[in-house]
């Protein structure tokens, strides 16, 4: 692929707004050629491999990323602005995912069913074929690995499309994977909406695994519906954290801060709606503001930095606009001093300060929309029923958390929450061995864990008749 800067897309460092690389968008012809090569690799090579062979190749890919941990983390940091510890942590998580799915490729996937004489009946699973993995900009390497590790483990070939803002770590991974995987088993295309649409529409794509906004997910599902093409959608969220007066308030306050400021709020599972019991409202919000206000936005490589930048200037402007609208609607800006303090000026980057908006009208965008920034909207309750109603006052259903020392109350909320990830007296726990998914407009399909096999394979029922005495 020609890397002419005149035709290539500029890739920015969001911490400075400067160009760090140019990478051309893949043309329609390039998408077609990439998918044809992926098809040939699937039919001629990868679908014919044994589970042990796939295990060994995925383990080798994990070892490669592990050995090049520093370079992958530095590349991810320069492209996303993540603080150093977070960038390294995400590379480490990606390695664990590759290791886990290497092992999972060896797990039994079928069943033998009772049958009469001369008949063998069993069920098994077969690969889907060519998988298009369309990835977001908030965790470029990690979320791509969630998809490609599972798809490859079960015998599919994969074409990855990273977000146009953050292609660099995936570009490197695909290049380096050529040394441990057969040709075209893992490949990539680059660009924006047009390239994603081409992947969805192309008859050579057998499945689309998409992570991104709910709006974009609807279009992916619509485009794939015509060909009855299976889709996995991990979409947006507007997740509640419900805190009762009898909770461990210090632990809850620290969890709330992590929930809305982690990765500078650029997480689909972010806990961005605090639903707090009325008697402790002022005390608790004050403590959350103290902790959040102590966080330091700063240069990604500075050891003192807690928060990196947002990914784009447009994301920064939208965040400020939504906070200003909330203030104009009567909400109280607890942190910073006013809506005018949302922007954090540094090096020309896209930095924001943590924001807490109290008494937000439930009609406001700050309460209803996924902002993808460190903005916490606060509401109060006086009864369990009111708390649950506020928690469910959203079309999303990705995650939810409840904090209380009353174990029966905790169990009631755990059972009642309409969310795919539920945490009680904790927040944010994720492991490669545990499958996750959303409910409602947060999508469907499973990532990670044993249930990922359900998306990247198809179940079959098989009857084999044997001749009498044969």
Characterization of this structure:
The protein is of the alpha/beta class and 470 residues long. 38% of the residues lie in helices and 21% in strands. The chain contains 15 helices and 22 strands. The chain has helices spanning 28-44, 51-67, 69-80, 84-104, 140-153, 168-177, 193-201, 214-225, 249-261, 281-293, 313-328, 365-368, 384-391, 407-416, 453-456, and strands at 9-13, 18-23, 111-113, 119-127, 130-134, 157-161, 186-188, 207-211, 231-234, 239-243, 271-277, 332-335, 343-344, 351-352, 355-358, 375-381, 396-397, 399-403, 421-424, 439-440, 443-444, 457-465. The strands form six sheets. It has a seven-stranded mixed β-sheet with strand order 12-15-16-11-10-18-19, sandwiched between helices. Strand 3 and strand 4 (119-127) form a beta hairpin. Helix 3 packs antiparallel against helix 6 and helix 9 packs across helix 10. The radius of gyration is 24 Å and the shape is globular. GO terms for molecular function: oxidoreductase activity, acting on the aldehyde or oxo group of donors, NAD or NADP as acceptor. Pfam families: Aldedh.
The overall pLDDT average reads: 96
Radius of gyration: 24 Å
Low-confidence parts, pLDDT < 50 over ≥5 residues? 1-6
Can you tell me the overall shape?
Answer: globular
Biggest beta sheet summary: 7 strands, mixed
Structural class: alpha/beta
What portion of the residues fall into strands of 2 or more residues? 15-25%
Number of helices: 15
Question: Order of strands across the biggest sheet?
Answer: 12-15-16-11-10-18-19
User: Percent of residues in helical segments?
Assistant: 25-40%
Task: Give the N-terminus to C-terminus distance in angstroms.
Answer: 57 Å
- Could you tell me the number of beta strands? 22
Family: Belongs to the aldehyde dehydrogenase family.
Keywords: Oxidoreductase
Active site: 234
Pfam families: Aldedh (PF00171)
């Amino acid at each position: 692929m020609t890397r002419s800067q005149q035709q290539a897309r500029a890739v920015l460092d969001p911490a400075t707004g400067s160009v760090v690389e140019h990478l051309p968008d893949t043309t329609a012809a390039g998408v077609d050629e990439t998918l044809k090569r992926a098809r040939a690799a699937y039919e001629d090579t990868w679908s014919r491999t044994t589970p042990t062979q796939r295990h060994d190749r995925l383990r080798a890919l994990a070892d490669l990323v592990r050995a090049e941990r520093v370079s992958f983390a530095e590349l991810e940091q320069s492209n996303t602005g993540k603080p150093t510890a977070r960038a390294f942590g995400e590379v480490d998580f990606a390695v664990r995912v590759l290791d886990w799915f290497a092992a999972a490729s060896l797990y039994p996937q079928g069943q033998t069913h009772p049958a009469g004489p001369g008949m063998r009946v069993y069920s098994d699973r077969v690969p889907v074929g060519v998988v298009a993995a369309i990835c977001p900009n908030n965790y470029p390497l990690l979320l791509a690995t969630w998809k490609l590790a599972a798809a490859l483990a079960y015998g599919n070939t994969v074409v990855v499309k990273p977000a146009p803002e953050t292609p660099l770590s995936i570009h490197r991974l695909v290049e380096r994977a050529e040394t441990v995987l057969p040709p075209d088993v893992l490949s990539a295309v680059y660009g924006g909406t047009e390239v994603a649409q081409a992947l969805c529409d192309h008859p050579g794509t057998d499945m689309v695994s998409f992570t991104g906004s709910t709006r974009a997910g609807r279009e992916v599902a619509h485009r794939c519906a015509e060909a009855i093409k299976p889709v996995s959608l991990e979409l947006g969220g507007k997740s509640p954290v419900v805190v009762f007066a009898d909770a461990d308030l210090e632990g809850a306050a620290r969890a709330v801060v992590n929930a809305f400021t982690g990765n500078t709020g650029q997480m689909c599972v972010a806990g961005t709606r605090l639903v707090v019991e009325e008697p402790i409202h002022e005390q608790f919000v004050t403590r959350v503001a103290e902790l959040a206000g102590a966080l330091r936005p700063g240069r990604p490589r500075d050891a003192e930095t807690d928060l990196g930048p947002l990914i784009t200037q447009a994301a920064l402007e939208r965040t400020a606009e939504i906070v200003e609208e909330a203030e104009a609607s009567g909400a109280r800006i607890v942190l910073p001093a006013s809506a005018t303090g949302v922007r954090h000026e540094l090096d020309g980057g896209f930095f924001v300060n943590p924001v807490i908006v109290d008494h937000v009208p439930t009609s406001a965008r700050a309460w209803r929309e996924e902002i993808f920034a460190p903005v916490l909207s606060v509401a109060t309750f006086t009864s369990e029923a009111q708390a649950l109603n506020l928690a469910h006052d959203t079309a999303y259903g990705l995650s939810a958390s409840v904090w209380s020392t009353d174990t029966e109350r905790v169990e009631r909320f755990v059972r009642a929450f309409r969310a795919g990830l539920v945490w009680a007296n904790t927040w944010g726990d994720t492991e490669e061995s545990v499958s996750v998914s959303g409910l409602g407009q947060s999508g469907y399909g499973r990532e990670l864990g044993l249930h990922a096999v359900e998306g990247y394979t198809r179940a079959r029922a098989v009857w084999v008749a044997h001749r009498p005495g044969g």
